């Protein structure tokens, strides 16, 4: 029996569907999915088993034009994740086609293409006519010699099994990298923080989500099998604190309930979640906030 194992990086513009695809491939919610652009900060890895192959997914932040230090660190992490992977999958949204952002990524592929296979996955195919798809496929393959092209809908699951099967065959032969029952190598404290951040992002549609971060400060295993989790939400100004708390604390309460419910489902046990909001004007410039997110502060320079 030959086992295979290796890393697959999903790259693309923000909102191309990378997290949705990762969650579908892995079969559990590992990477947070929201309609806000640019919500994946750390390189979250999900592990999928396919036959005798173990596929370890590196979910990279979306590639976009960076403006701030955090943006630059995220883009560096995305290209770094792709350069470390055995196989790279570029995801392009069918209905958006070749945007300026996709053009920039295609140029960047030349730098990381050597020594690894790069596949193309055209996502959200249910949104366009087949002739548009064929035109887009031809156009993209003329611009870069992809190892293979897949038409998928990450959300509905079309074509995902086919892509996963192909990826499993491309990985190098070797022992598995993780125990079979492990789905993410992100520490649970970080996954818990991501879940709360997702709930905040969904509740607060304004600019605010980019100005806040969540950290799991304390995790206590209780005798009755439950977990007590204390989290800090850092915001940049007093006004933001008010928004996060909401009228009579309604927003934070709703966020806490939603995050707790999801954590309980994920951990399969009772969770006591306590959230606190702190104003920290310079958190975007603090190196320890970056390491909490699995990013390199120096990459932001």
Work out the helix count: 9
The average pLDDT score comes to: 84
Could you name the ranges where pLDDT drops below 50 across 5 or more consecutive residues? none
Largest sheet: 6 strands, mixed
Amino- and carboxy-terminal Cα gap: 47 Å
In one word, what is the shape?
globular
Class computed from helices, strands and strand pairing: alpha/beta
Write a short abstract of this structure.
With 301 residues, the protein is an alpha/beta fold. Helix content is 37%, strand content 22%. The termini are far apart.
Fold blueprint:
Blueprint: E1 4-12, H1 18-26, E2 44-50, E3 53-59, H2 69-84, E4 87-93, H3 100-112, E5 117-123, H4 130-143, E6 149-151, H5 160-170, H6 188-203, E7 213-221, E8 227-235, H7 238-245, H8 250-267, E9 271-279, H9 287-292
Question: What descriptors fit this protein?
Answer:
single chain; 301 residues; alpha/beta; six-stranded mixed β-sheet; three-stranded mixed β-sheet; 9 helices
